[in-house]
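Researcher: Please predict.
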Amino acid sequence: MIISDLCDEYSVLVSQNKAPAYGHDNINVPYGLVINDDGTLVAVRPLGDFSGKKPIHIISAPTRFPRSSGIVANFLCDTVTYMLGYDTKGKPERAAQAFQACAELHLCVLDGVEGPVASAICAFFTQAPQWETAQYLMGDEAWKSSLTMNFALYYDNGTQATFVGDFPNVQEAWNTYYDQEKNDNESTLVSSLVSGKQVVPEKIHPKIKGVAGAQSAGASLISFNAPAFCSHGAEQNENAPMSKREAYEYTTALNTLLADRDRVQRIGDDTVISWAHCGNGVYPDLFSQWQNGSMGQSAVKLDEKTVKDATHALAQGRPYDYEGIHLSPDEKFHILALSPNAARLSVRFYLTNTFGAFACNIERHYQDVAIRRPNYDTTTFLPTWRLLNQTIRAQSKNAKVSAEMAGAVMKAILNDTAYPVTLINAVERRITAERDVSPDKAAIIKAYYLRKTTNEQFKEVLQMDINEESDYLPYVLGRMFSIYEQIQLAAITGINTTIKDKYFTSASTTPARIFPILGDLAAKHMRKTWQSKGLKIKLDKTLGALTKKVGDRYPSRLSLEERGAFQLGYYFENQKRFEKTNKNTEDAEQGENND
């Protein structure tokens, strides 16, 4: 399914002039080797933009052949080793062999082709390598900086120099050569896994570039490199048979999508790309902002209100139109997450559905993580990257989000299924270490148990804000702990270390052991002289109501789920204390206590 969908996407990209035609690649070629009629190198022309650290000049050139080891030449453009026979690695014999292989390829492709351009190319490769001429024409400094870059052949007709690949007879010769499938024995024909047609299977597929963490030279999505992976005498990618054209189409489509960095996302170690069947880039732009919020990289920036309105309309099955943007809920949409694995790529997940279905699931996710926040926190959508960052230590530069968990969370969001247990376990570890419940962590606890718990009492407190009517014991205990802390803060002005720093973790796990201690401390604090008698009365009244609900039912131990209820109770009661009429005071206290 993935390969077939990518082949379909290739056709769309070609129709939009975003991908090269079959048999060609978009290659960075910063230098042109200009030759005359007799194949003599007359100039080396810098091409494109040289203002950055690396010169950029992208052209549509004959496709690259996979080069993992050994000598493999490319047509019309390559490095100095192949095009000029220059030794860059202290191996002159290998450089000579590389130039010879390049010459044989060009002579084979252009065999029988008439015209001055083809004759000039053949003459260039039948002469001795002309690297000394190139070095002289470029100068030593430019020559040294170009040794790892690509050079393309240009033909000088006396008035202008033109890339030889743009001449029709050269193009036709290359297309004929590249598209030929040698088949001396019809028994080698097999059914393609993509089209079902009888094809000669391509043994080695082009590399995929642009996946974070993979080799910079590219990695394989499909490959077989050991006999244990093969069957029925098939070699390499004959075990996943598809034609040369199909292999080219899916890899070119994937490389084109990965090259559009504005629409590529990173979730943990995974590289995520998405595309709509129609080819409209606004769909992946909106998807990017669903996942990444204001930090999302996308070609079209949409404000939060537009994102919210579009999401709601699409989730309801209605099209969305805004300032020339048209989004259909019925548009087929694809999401592919790739994980690097040495020289190969692993598919973390691949999801296909209508865009409206994804919008519905994502809106449900945002509803689940919606929670009351401090006034200074203006978060509307909790981005996936920020949600995942709640599972690691924020101050650590080396801490990394688990790749497996990141993929599982993404799948849960997009499929509207339960969040992985690894998410809540990681968040609980951070709460234990930090002895605090931040708004984002509270949102995760609420969302996780909304989809997971079967406890009806617990479901009653999984709301946007506090449920003061609930008698669910772990929840009430969390509220009580917050009141105990508020009493301590009010009684001891300027205190730096509170009961939260010393008792929060143990109170949320073994309340029967800790709450009697907290009750004694609160009684001592209530006997002190307070600056605000009104606050003292208010807290005493709230504590009395909560104590009445608890009675003497302090459980000896709370389960993981009950700890979540305790933490939500603590969080909501903390937020409730900032309900004041004086907004300046409210914001100041929130910034002081909730950062």
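Model: Residues 40 and 402 are 57 Å apart (CA to CA).
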